[in-house]
Amino acid sequence: MSSVRLEKISALIRKELSLLFQKNMKVMFDGFMVTVTHARVAPDLSMCKIYLSFFPAGSANRGMELVEDQKSKIRKMLGDQTASQLRRIPELVFHVDDSLDYSDEIERLLGKKKS
To answer: What's the rounded Cα separation, in Å, for the pair 16 and 36?
Structure first.
C-alpha cells in the first residue's frame, strides 16, 4: 500500500480519536486531558500505534490504565465514526508519548550547562 494512503489513514484515525477523546473526556478520563500526538498504521492496516500525551504530566500511568480498560469501546466508537471512510478498523495499540518530557529534560540540562 502506498505511503500516501497510509499517511491519510493515520491522519484520519488521529483526528477522529482526538475528537472522540475531546467529546468524552469527563466520562472516560476523570477530567484530565488526553492528546493524540501520533498515529502510525501498519502497511497491512492490521494495527495502528497511537501515541498519547496526558495533562497533568503525572497522570500518564492512570490515563493509560483507563485507555486500556476501554480499548474495545474506543475502537467501536472509532469504527462508528469512520464507517463511511474505512472498511476495517485496525487493532489499536496505545503508547505514552513522552517526547515533551524528554525535550524539557534536554533543555533543562542544556540550561544548567550554560550557567
So the answer is: 10
